[in-house]
Amino acid sequence: MSGGEPSGVDLVRVALRAAMEAARKNSTRPKAKRKPRAVTTVQRDGREPMGLGAAINALVTEPA
């Protein structure tokens, strides 16, 4: 084992980095622009299960 040549895990890292760079250079796929995610709100009608914290909060804030 010489100190200048990578071996074992280091050799795999070097090979992976080279393969990723080659794939990036050879890619014909256009770079995709990220679309903003749509915000969804959940409206509960009382039939869906609640989390424990939400259930306790509902019990505490609910009038007797």
Verbal overview:
The chain is mostly helical and 64 residues long. The protein is 44% helix and 0% strand. The protein is built from two helices and no strands. 0% of the residues are buried.
Task: Please give a quick description of this structure.
This protein is an all-alpha fold. The chain is built from two helices and no strands. It is elongated, with a radius of gyration of 27 Å.
Q: Number of helical segments?
A: 2
Calculate the mean pLDDT score and round it. 83
H/E series: HH
Report how far apart the termini are.
78 Å
Structural class: mainly alpha
**Helical coverage, percent range:** 40-55%
Radius of gyration: 27 Å
Task: Determine the strand fraction and express it as a percent band.
Answer: under 5%
> How many extended strands?
0
Shape estimate: elongated
Main beta sheet = none
The low-confidence parts are: none
